[in-house]
Amino acid sequence: DTAVSQTPKYLVTQMGNDKSIKCEQNLGHDTMYWYKQDSKKFLKIMFSYNNKELIINETVPNRFSPKSPDKAHLNLHINSLELGDSAVYFCASSQGSAGSEKLFFGSGTQLSVL
Amino acid sequence: QKEVEQNSGPLSVPEGAIASLNCTYSDRGSQSFFWYRQYSGKSPELIMFIYSNGDKEDGRFTAQLNKASQYVSLLIRDSQPSDSATYLCAVSLGNEKLTFGTGTRLTIIP
Predict the structure, then answer these.
(1) Is B92 on the interface with A (CB under 8 A)?
(2) Is residue A84 classed as helix, strand or coil in its secondary structure?
(3) Do A90 and B95 touch (CB under 8 A)?
(4) Cα(B68)–Cα(B91) distance, rounded to whole angstroms?
(5) Does the beta-carbon distance from A99 to B95 stay under 8 Å?
(6) Chain B residue with minimal CA distance to A6?
(7) CA spacing 20 to 30 A to B39: which of A57, A92, B101, B102?
(8) How far apart, in whole angstroms, are the C-alpha atoms of residue B52 and residue A83?
(9) What residues form DSSP beta bridges with B88?
(10) Do A99 and B44 touch (CB under 8 A)?
């Protein structure tokens, strides 16, 4: 059973389109995250939710909108995709805060904007 | 100045030798320090964490923390080809925000 699963694994789309990435965790964790990893492997937090409540919202364009219907799911919707949005997006979860607990990552979604 | 800095490498180490990976951080209030390993095309996985000054050993891995000098390092003894990966240093003030370095790419040469 996959602990943190995200879909799709690959997403190729045109500039200006809207797309969504879904994430689910079956670990019973309270906190979920979205991270963006660029081509230089720099992993940067975008959002953090604790039990469906937004905790961290880094300086991310408002074209990115996370949604957490329940504490096991955290989806990411991106409007008006731009070339610079091309990256690998990782969903992650932890029992407590990322600062003191192990992060469990999903397998990543490779987003390519053409 | 970046919050968490690592030498991007690549760092090449002969099989069986000790690989030494270094990381410096800028915020003196940092409390928690992590090392994640990421194989090419895969997601990061936690291999070590350390909270207190000094050394922490787990098998072939040793994490070293020096808060006065604001650096944390990872030593890998008896390096194996399977250790070839990118190693990400991550630092936290103890809250939900974990700040990652850009990673060091390690190659173990058979």
Answers:
(1) yes
(2) helix
(3) no
(4) 15
(5) yes
(6) B43
(7) A57
(8) 42
(9) B36
(10) no
pLDDT band with cut points at 50, 70 and 90 for residue A70: very high
SS (H, E, C) A15-76: CCCCEEEEEEECCCCCEEEEEEECCCCCEEEEEEEECCEEEEECCCCCCEEEEEEECCEEEE
Residues 6+ apart with CB under 8 A from A61: none
- pLDDT tens profile A30-48: 999 999 999 888 999 999 9
The pLDDT value recorded for residue A89 is 98
pLDDT over threshold 90, residue A58 = no
pLDDT tens-place string over residues B28-79: 988 899 999 999 999 999 999 999 999 999 999 999 999 999 999 999 999 9
A33-72 in b/e form (b: 16+ CB < 10 A) is bbbbbeeebbbebbbbbbeeeebbeeebeeebebebeebb
Taking only the tens place, the pLDDT of each residue in A72-82 is 999 999 999 99
Query: How far apart, in whole angstroms, are the C-alpha atoms of residue B11 and residue B8?
Result: 8
CB-hemisphere CA count at 13 Å for B88? 23
A101 — phi, psi (to 5°)?
Answer: -125, 155
Write out chain B residues lying below 8 Å of A60, CB-based: none
- What phi and psi, each to the nearest 5 degrees, are found at residue A59? -70, 75
- How close, in Å, is residue A30 to chain B by CA atoms? 11
